[in-house]
């Protein structure tokens, strides 16, 4: 490992913890101060605040499954992904700065959603983005961090693909 290892790990840890904390605080506020199923228009035709839960995975997949194995399997899978991301970050295999930041954001978001699954067996969602009658799936801050993080990883991959270094040629 290089001399920047402890500093890099500290930065990753702080960013992931901040995402986890913001996600959990926002979900706690939604659960405490709004009724399940409630909805409020924030920006007409664009953004609503809703209190919903998702026992499935992204985009409501598996939400209707009655299997008693759904929650435990989702937790095990999520913990395995978190472990892989931590390993990539700690060993320096998460790419350059954009990829590392992106993987850290994915880590914080995944940790927020897996904590929901462990504590509540479902994930609390509250952001309902839509354009007219077309609604995206309701999401939360953890989901936002995962999507932004994935975008950063993709940007780095595209940048590296378009501009290979001399070592890669």
Task: Explain the overall architecture.
- The structure is a single chain.
- By secondary structure, this protein is of the alpha+beta class.
- The protein has one domain (5-162).
- The chain is 57% helix and 14% strand.
- The protein is built from 4 helices and 4 strands, in the order H-E-E-H-H-E-E-H.
- It has a 4-stranded antiparallel sheet with strand order 1-2-3-4.
- A hairpin with a 2-residue loop joins strand 3 (123-131) and strand 4 (134-135).
- It starts with a helix and ends in a 7-residue tail after the last helix.
In short:
The chain has 169 residues and is of the alpha+beta class. It contains 4 helices and 4 strands.
User: How many structural domains?
Assistant: 1
Structural category: alpha+beta
Gyration radius from CA atoms, angstroms = 18 Å
**Main sheet properties:** 4 strands, antiparallel
- What is the overall shape? globular
What low-confidence regions span 5 or more consecutive residues with pLDDT below 50?
none
Q: Count the strands?
A: 4
Strand order, largest beta sheet = 1-2-3-4
Q: Indicate the proportion of strand residues.
A: 5-15%
Task: Furnish the topology, listing elements before pairings.
Blueprint: H1 5-33, E1 39-43, E2 47-54, H2 70-90, H3 97-120, E3 123-131, E4 134-135, H4 141-162
Antiparallel strand pairs: 1-2, 2-3, 3-4
Helix pairs in contact: 1-3, 2-3, 3-4
């Amino acid at each position: 490992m290089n001399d920047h290892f402890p500093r890099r790990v500290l930065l990753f840890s702080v960013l992931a913890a901040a995402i986890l904390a913001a996600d959990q605080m926002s979900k706690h506020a939604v659960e405490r101060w709004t009724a399940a199923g409630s909805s409020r228009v924030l920006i007409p035709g664009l953004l609503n605040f809703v209190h919903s839960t998702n026992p499935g995975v992204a985009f409501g997949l598996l939400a209707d499954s009655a299997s008693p194995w759904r929650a435990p399997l989702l937790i095990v899978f999520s913990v395995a992904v978190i472990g892989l991301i931590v390993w990539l970050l700690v060993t320096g295999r998460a790419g350059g700065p954009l990829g590392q930041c992106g993987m850290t954001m994915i880590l914080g978001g995944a940790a927020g959603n897996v904590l929901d699954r462990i504590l509540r067996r479902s994930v609390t969602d509250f952001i309902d983005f839509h354009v007219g009658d077309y609604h995206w799936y309701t999401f939360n801050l953890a989901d936002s961090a995962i999507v932004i993080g994935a975008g950063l990883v993709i940007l780095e991959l595209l940048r590296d693909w378009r501009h290979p270094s001399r070592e890669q040629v």
